[in-house]
Write a structure and sequence with these properties.
The complex is a heterodimer of chains A (235) and B (227).
Chain A (H helix, E strand, L loop, with lengths): L1 H18 L15 H30 L5 H33 L7 H21 L4 H14 L1 H10 L4 H4 L6 H5 L5 H51 L1
Helix pairs in contact in A: 1-9, 2-3, 2-5, 2-9, 3-4, 3-5, 3-9, 4-5, 4-6
Chain B lengths: L4 H22 L1 H20 L7 H19 L2 H9 L2 H7 L2 H31 L6 H26 L5 H27 L5 H30 L2
Helix pairs in contact in B: 1-6, 2-3, 2-6, 3-6, 3-7, 3-8, 4-7, 6-7, 6-9, 7-8, 7-9, 8-9
The chains are: A mainly alpha (235), B mainly alpha (227).
Chain lengths: 235, 227
C-alpha cells in the first residue's frame, strides 16, 4: 500500500513539475523547471553523504568498544552509494541547466566545480573500498575515509561557493532562490519532488543493506566451505 | 592506565627519531620529492617560454607541483613500514596517537623543507613577482601543514591495499583539491593578483583547515591503525 502511495506521489510531483507556471528571473524561464529535479538531487546527495559519515562514525566507535556494528558499516556504504547516485544526477541536471540558461555545457562555475570535486571524493571512496580484499579491513578503512570526507565536503558545499571572491563570479541562481523569486506554487512543486525522491530512495537504501548482508553471508558460507574442504583434504 | 605527558612525549620523540634515522640512511623521501619538485619547476619554466606568468597562474602551478610532490614523498612513512614488515612491531612498541604524531611531525618537517625549496626554486626560475612576503609565508606554511596532515592520514589507509603507490594519489588528491582552492586564493594575492583582504581571509582558512586536519587525524588514524 505504501509503495503504491509513493508511486502516486512521485507521478503527481513529476507531472506538476511540467505543469507548474514558469519561474521569474531566468534566461529561459520554461526550462528553468530542471531545478525541480536538480535541487532535490543536490539536497539528497548532501544528506546521504552526511548519513554515510554518521554511520561510519557509529561503526568505528562501536568497533573500538568491541560491539558488532556491521549493520552501521552496511548503512554507511548504502548511504554513500545513494549519495553518489544523487551527486551524478545533480551534476547531469546541472550541466543541462547550464546549457539552457547560460549557453554552455560547462563553464567552471564555482557550484559546478564544487560538485565535481564532491564526485571525485566519492569516486576516491569507492576506489579505496575496491583496493582492499579483506572485508573487515575494507570496512574500517572506508569508514575512516567516509568520516574524513566531512571536512572537504562541508568546505565544498557550504564555504567555497560563498567565499566573496568566488561568489562574485558565480552564475548559479542561489540569489534568485534566496531572494524569493520562486512563488509559492514553485516551492510546493519543488518540495513535492524532494519528498518524492526521498521516499523513493529510502526503499533503495534498505534494499542495498539487505543485498550487502546477503553478499556477506554468501562470502562467509563460501570461505567456510573452502576451509572445510582444505581440512578434509589434509586429513 | 593513565599516561603521563613525559611518556607520551618520549614515544612521539622516539617515533620521530626513528623516521629521521631511516630517512638519513636511505634519503628516499628527500631525494624523490625534491627531485620531482625541482624537475616539475624546470618543466613549468621551460613550458612558459620565458613568458611572465600572472600571479594567479603562478600560484596555481606552484600548488600543482606541491600536490604531486606531497603524494610522492609523504606516503612512504606508512607504506615502507608495511613493505618492510615492521608495522606490527611499531604497533606493539608505541600507542597509535604517538605513532601518528611522530610520523606526522616528521612529514611536516620534511614537507616544509621540500615545499619551501620548491617555492624558492619556482620564484627564481619562473620569475614570479612577490607582493606580500608575510602572506606568502603564512599561506605556504599553512598549506604545507594541511597537505601533510591529509596525505599522512591517506597513506595509512592505503598502506595494506593493492596498488598502493597509485592509490594514494587517487584518494589523497580529491581531498586536497578544496585545500588547493584555498591555497591558490591566498597565494595569488601574495604573488600580485587580487585584493589583500581576500588573500588574508583565504590564508586564515588555510590555517584553520590545517588545524582541523591535525585535530581529527589522530582519532581516525587510531581506528585504522589498530585494525
Amino acid at each position: 500500500m505504501i509503495r503504491i502511495l509513493v508511486a502516486v506521489w512521485v507521478l503527481v510531483a513529476m507531472a506538476a513539475a511540467f505543469l507548474a507556471p514558469d519561474a521569474k528571473g531566468f534566461q529561459s524561464p520554461a526550462l528553468a523547471r530542471i531545478v525541480f529535479f536538480h535541487l532535490p538531487c543536490a539536497f539528497l546527495a548532501t544528506g546521504y553523504l552526511f548519513a554515510g559519515s554518521f554511520y561510519a562514525v557509529k561503526f568505528l566507535k562501536g568497533r573500538s568498544a568491541e560491539r558488532d556494528e556491521t549493520e552501521s558499516a552496511r548503512k554507511s556504504v548504502a548511504a554513500n552509494e545513494l549519495g553518489y547516485l544523487f551527486a551524478v544526477l545533480t551534476m547531469v541536471t546541472g550541466i543541462l541547466f547550464s546549457y539552457v540558461q547560460w549557453g554552455t555545457w560547462w563553464q567552471w562555475d564555482p557550484r559546478q566545480t564544487s560538485f565535481l570535486m564532491l564526485l571525485l571524493l566519492y569516486s576516491a571512496y569507492f576506489a579505496l573500498r575496491s583496493a582492499h580484499g579483506d572485508p573487515d579491513r575494507r570496512e574500517v578503512v572506508a569508514s575512516a575515509y567516509a568520516v574524513a570526507l566531512v571536512l572537504p565536503a562541508v568546505f565544498l558545499i557550504f564555504v567555497f561557493p560563498r567565499l566573496p571572491q568566488i561568489a562574485n563570479v558565480s552564475f548559479h541562481p542561489t540569489q534568485t532562490i534566496q531572494q524569493g523569486q520562486f512563488d509559492r506554487n514553485y516551492w510546493t512543486v519543488l518540495l513535492a519532488n524532494f519528498f518524492g525522491l526521498l521516499m523513493l530512495s529510502v526503499p533503495l537504501f534498505r534494499l542495498r543493506i539487505r543485498a550487502e548482508a546477503l553478499a556477506h553471508r554468501r562470502f562467509g558460507e563460501a570461505t567456510g566451505a573452502a576451509a572445510r574442504a582444505t581440512i578434509t583434504r589434509k586429513s | 592506565m593513565a599516561i603521563s605527558n613525559s611518556n607520551w612525549r618520549a614515544e612521539v620523540g622516539a617515533v620521530f627519531e626513528k623516521e629521521w634515522l631511516v630517512e638519513r640512511r636511505a634519503r628516499t623521501g628527500w631525494i624523490t620529492a625534491g627531485l620531482f619538485g625541482f624537475v616539475a619547476v624546470v618543466a613549468v619554466a621551460l613550458a612558459g617560454f620565458g613568458i611572465k606568468l600572472t600571479g594567479s597562474l603562478s600560484a596555481g602551478l606552484l600548488w600543482v607541483v606541491w600536490l604531486f610532490a606531497a603524494t610522492v614523498a609523504l606516503p612512504r612513512a606508512f607504506v615502507a613500514e608495511e613493505e618492510l614488515g615492521t608495522a606490527n612491531l611499531l604497533r606493539l612498541s608505541a600507542r597509535a596517537h604517538s605513532v601518528y604524531w611522530g610520523k606526522a611531525l616528521f612529514n611536516l618537517v620534511q614537507m616544509s623543507a621540500i615545499g619551501l625549496l620548491i617555492a624558492v626554486a619556482y620564484i627564481g626560475l619562473v620569475g614570479a613577482e612577490m607582493r606580500d612576503p608575510a602572506l606568502f609565508l603564512i599561506s605556504v606554511l599553512g598549506g604545507l601543514a594541511a597537505l601533510t596532515g591529509t596525505v599522512t592520514f591517506c597513506s595509512v589507509l592505503v598502506a595494506q591495499a593493492a596498488f598502493r603507490g597509485a592509490l594514494v594519489g587517487a584518494i589523497a588528491l580529491p581531498m586536497l583539491l578544496p585545500l588547493a582552492a584555498l591555497g591558490v586564493s591566498s597565494l595569488r594575492v601574495a604573488l600580485g593578483n587580487g585584493f589583500p583582504e581576500a588573500g588574508w581571509q583565504a590564508a586564515v582558512g588555510l590555517v584553520g583547515y590545517a588545524t582541523l586536519t591535525f585535530a581529527s587525524g589522530p582519532y581516525l588514524f587510531a581506528a585504522v591503525w589498530k585494525s
